[in-house]
Specification:
22% of the residues lie in helices and 34% in strands. It is of the alpha+beta class. The protein folds into 2 domains: 30 residues; 136 residues, Sandwich (Immunoglobulin-like). A 5-stranded mixed beta sheet has the order 3-10-7-4-5, with no helix packed on it. The longest helix has 26 residues. 24% of the residues are buried.
Length: 176
């Protein structure tokens, strides 16, 4: 190898190492990232809750998904710490799903669904059902706030198939 080629190769290697080091430093300073569905949906440390244990269910709520692109009920109220068994039914003729998340997470997931409509779901914060089917989702709401849910099948979210869970502080439900 000629000295000029060796020098150029050495410079390229140093520049590549520097770029790799800078990228690694940038990644190390970023907050943790949790990806699901082959990397398309974030769950930002699931500030809205966590998967619940069947033995700790405090309440059961039935939710129906319909072809008018609505959930019944669309709004729910629970208290922080509650573990809810959602008995979810699809009374329509189209596939529907119920996905919990922040508005940002749901919009990002929906954008991915538009690009990959045949995507399969297996996360604890969602259930996807064929027409006429029912299933269960057990979720523990860990802190007060609003948790959104939506159907992210292409076209359904845009048609308004979304709802919310108001999570009140445990003492917020006591009567005085």
């Amino acid at each position: 190898m000629k000295p000029v080629q060796t020098k150029n190769l050495f410079i390229a290697a140093v520049l590549a190492a520097a770029a790799f080091h800078a990228a690694a430093q940038n990644m190390a300073s970023m907050p943790p990232h949790h990806a699901e569905h082959a990397g398309h949906a974030e769950h930002a440390d699931d500030v809205f809750g966590q998967p619940g244990a069947a033995g700790k269910v405090t309440r059961t709520i039935k939710v129906d998904m319909r072809d008018n692109m609505r959930f019944t009920p669309e709004t729910l109220k629970v208290k922080a710490g509650d573990t809810i068994r959602f008995v979810v039914s699809n009374s329509g003729k189209f596939r529907h799903e119920l996905v919990f998340g922040t508005e940002t997470q749901l919009k990002a997931h929906y954008a991915a669904m538009l690009k990959n409509p045949e995507m399969e779901h297996a996360d604890d914060n969602q259930i996807s059902l064929a027409p006429g089917k029912s299933g269960e989702l057990i979720w523990q709401f860990t802190q007060a706030g609003t948790v959104n849910f939506a159907c992210l099948q292409p076209g359904h979210y845009d048609a308004g198939m979304k709802g919310s869970v108001t999570v009140v502080a445990a003492e917020g439900l006591h009567k005085h």
